[in-house]
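Exam revision sheet. Question 4 asks you to relate a sequence to its structure. Input first:
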Amino acid sequence: MIWRRAEGTRVWDENGREYIDLTAGFGVAVLGHSNPRIREAIASQPVVHALGDLAEAEVTRRFRDALPWPAKLGVTGEDAVEIALRTALLATGKPGIVAFDGAYHGTGLLALAATGLERFRAPFAPWLPEPVYRKTFGEDPGPLPPDAGCVIVEPVQGRVGSRVPSAAFLEQLRARCDAAGAVLIVDAIFTGLGRLGEMWPGSEVADVLCVGKALGGGLPLSAALFVRGDLAQAWDLGREDVYTHTHVGNPLACAAGLVVLEEVPRFLDRVHELSDQFAAAGWHGAGLLRTRRQNAAHAVRNGVLAIPIPAQDGRHALTQAAPAFSMTDEELDEALRRLSRH
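Answer key, structure tokens:
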């Protein structure tokens, strides 16, 4: 499919057909497509490109200051995960990673090593770093291996169909990390910034919190947030930054990010209202990361865009919704009516 235009929660394809978008561009456009405040913020920037590690634009500095903890910025969500995993190695000297079945952390080799989906891992298996200890999501992993420098976990797993663990799960992981001297990394790339009805899910237990997707308001921007502030010092390795990209701190993305940080808290109550409506309609999950048993191709045929979750282990294919927080009741009702058509 080729998108010709996107506005609010509506998308039009190259043939002019209109769709209600339940994906928000895969969780990115939480304030709606073509949000006017974001467009204005982008258009008003006097510096329009990143400066690598030579300097930062003024708006990039303001964006850093607006974050609740010290941060190392990235471009993609996978960048933030890579930064977090490298931070754990630098801080502990231990290379082991404890990760979970069903996890998705990105497709760079280090993040892919922690990812638990074989369809992504298998083609590159000979290159994947080790050791990685795979545990069952939602269950106490037990004492950590002696060489485990970190545990990485999602508050809610998205790529396998909105899997929600018990309330005690993250606290159990915190206790295991404390006992082993390991770093707890919470990957909230998909779930952070309001998706679950709170800004920073998992921050109450995390040492490092990874955020992305929605952070740049549609432009590529991510961050590894050092909730445990002393971890930022692990990167004091000399005058040159040993993990950087040309486009880190892009001022257009940071300008959009400032709008996201200001606007999203105003929508948190609305996220809870929409979440309740999805639950009442039979969608499982949490917040506005919701899944139901249905093929996503059916949704497209009926004028609704949703995220397809492939069938796994003999299970049925699923359809996932991660819509914009600005969706109206009328738009959601219309989407649900379209999805009910045969």
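Marking note for examiners. The first strand starts at residue 3 and ends at 7.
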